[in-house]
Amino acid sequence: MTTSDKLREIATRHFPVEEKLSNNSLYNQLQQSSQDNLLSDLTALISEHYYPKEFLLWTHSQGYWLFDSLTCLWVSDEPKAFQEEKTTDELFNYWKENEQ
Questions:
Q1: Between helices 26-48 and 3-14, what is the axis angle to 10°?
Q2: Which end of the chain is more exposed for a tag (fewer CB within 10 A), N or C?
């Protein structure tokens, strides 16, 4: 089962369609619309804060650690770079451009 299938299952569970009613009934149309909206919202939410596993493994292998989770600052444990703070997005962009 793909991630998309799982998300569709969640949306269907929250806004079920009545099989006894015709597919054109107002209730089923509203439920289907609500399913589609929830699926869209969940997909956007997940993709907004998604970082690939490879990136997170790279941060560990490079000696970065999360300094402040409220602002997502990463700090290297290397003495020469200890004062170098990067946001997660800055670090991710560096990884995409230079390490991938």
A1: 140
A2: N
Secondary structure (3-state) at 38: helix
Q: In 3-state terms, the chain is what percent helix, strand and coil (to 5)?
A: 60, 10, 30
Query: Which tokens sit at 91?
Result: 């670090």
Q: CA separation (Å) from 21 to 32, 64, 91? A: 13, 56, 52
| Cβ atoms of residues 22 and 28 within 8 Å | yes
| Contact criterion met (CB below 8 Å) for 42 and 7 | yes
Closest CA to 4 of 34, 33, 39, 35: 39
Q: Give per-residue pLDDT as tens, 35-91.
A: 998 888 888 777 777 788 888 888 778 777 666 555 556 666 665 544 566 777 888
* Alpha-carbon gap, residue 18 to 63, rounded angstroms: 54
